[in-house]
Each structure stands twice: as C-alpha cells, then as structure tokens.
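Agenda item 2: fe (ii) ion complex prediction
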Amino acid sequence: MNEDRRIIRYREFLVARDKAADLLRHRLAKREAFFDDLARRPVRSSAPVDRATYFRNMARRRPEHGLEPRMLWILATAKANQAERFGVGLAELLGCVNADDSARVHVALQETYHTRMLADVVAMFGLSVSVRPPRAFVRLMIHLMVSAPERWTLPLVGASEMVGCVLFRALRDKRVELFADEPAVAERIRLLYNEILADEIGHVGFIAARLDEHGRSMTRRLYARLASTLASQFSEIDALFGSSEMARRFSAFHLADAAAELPNLAFAAAQI
Ligand SMILES: [Fe+2]
Ligand SMILES: [Fe+2]
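Presented output:
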C-alpha cells in the first residue's frame, strides 16, 4: 500500500514527540517524563479561591452573573476537561481506537493526557474537577463523532478539533492578564496549554491529510457554521471573552500560523 508521505511524516513526528505508546496502560513514555518533571517542580496559586462558588458553578449549565474573570477561567478549564474526558472515555468504551494504526493510538492517548493536564491546571488552585458529563448538545456531538462511520464524521471531527484549537489558544492567552501577579502560575498554564494546543494542531493536520479537497472544504464549512454554536455551549468562555472577541478568534484561526507559533511542539501534516 502506498501511504501518504504526509501521514508517514506525522507518524515519525509523533514517535519523536511522545516516544513509546502503550494503549493498554494509557501511557506515552515522554509525557510521563514530562509529568514527572513537573511534579518535581510543583506550582500552587496562593490567590484565594472561593471553593463554594466553584463547585456550585460546576454543577450549573451557565455561570452565575458577576463571577470574577479568574473564576470563569478556572470553570472554563474544568469544563473543557469534562468534554475531553467524555469523548476519550466513550471512544474507548465503543472500541473506536484502531490499535493497528500507531498515529491513531498516539492521538487517542494524547487526548487522555489532555484531561490530566486540564485537571492539573485546576489543581493549581486547590480544586478538583467533578466527574460529570458535559452538556447534552456536546454529549450528542461527541456520541455522533465516535460512533458513526469515519467517512461521514471526519469533517465534523476536524471542525471540532479546529474549535478546540481556538478555545485552548484563547484560554492560554488569557493567562497573561489574569495571572500577571503570579508569574509561576501563568508560566505553568502556558506550558500545559501549549502541550494541548500543539497536539490539537497535529490532530487537525492529520485529519486534513486523510481528507480529499471536497472533505477539507466540508470541514471548513462545518467549522464556519458550527464554531460559535459549539463555543456557546461553553458559557464560561462566552462570559469571559464576549461573543464578538470569540467570533474574531474563530475567523482568524489559521492552522499553519498556529503550528508556526509552536515550532518545536506542533506539526500539521496537511493544511485545512
Ligand atoms: Fe484534546
Ligand atoms: Fe484532539
């Protein structure tokens, strides 16, 4: 079989980035080393956090009015974790991870690490992520994406990976103003969010490489139509950024630029 050069290069990139992948134990060798390193240098925010407000709002679909921006940011991070965990768990439950394809194994394991990284971000504030499913619309979308045949859903998965890139990038950037008084916290957030963002950029590029021009244009159209609907499901992000800022970020997203921003971390096998 004559496999696409771009996918072969992506596979090589993944092995260099993650080293050995162990699907059964949910481990990527280099990620484990990354977490071990971070554990040796723990970072904890000393800013007071209203735990009761956090847990009360984690149980709500929409945040209460008047929450301070930091609280909205932490809630947005925790809820992004819920959506990721739901997708990862369901894909595994339904046996959707093709163990014969090393690129897909890496991608699935990277998603598992994202939930851990997002939980680690929340833990810096002395909080935990409660085990709850994401909102119904997000659940429905995820369910559709992991259970329907790939040829139907690949553009949809691609579009939502693009949305993920924009959301994670926006949350990462927001640290600069929100956590300016705690540089170590802001730096740890940058480090963790960049890992996630770099992976998501790779996922979009991997999907683009598997699609033909028709599929890629469908992905772009779905993204243009779905971006704001999907993002509005994360009400905290809406409250934090405002819908016009998010709309601006969605239309400005460009995969090659996003990859160029993270030169040693991200690789987009193809453009969308
Ligand atoms: Fe992810
Ligand atoms: Fe992804």
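Discussion summary: Residues 111, 161, 164, 200, 203 surround fe (ii) ion (ligand 2) (CB under 6 Å).
Owner for follow-up: CH.
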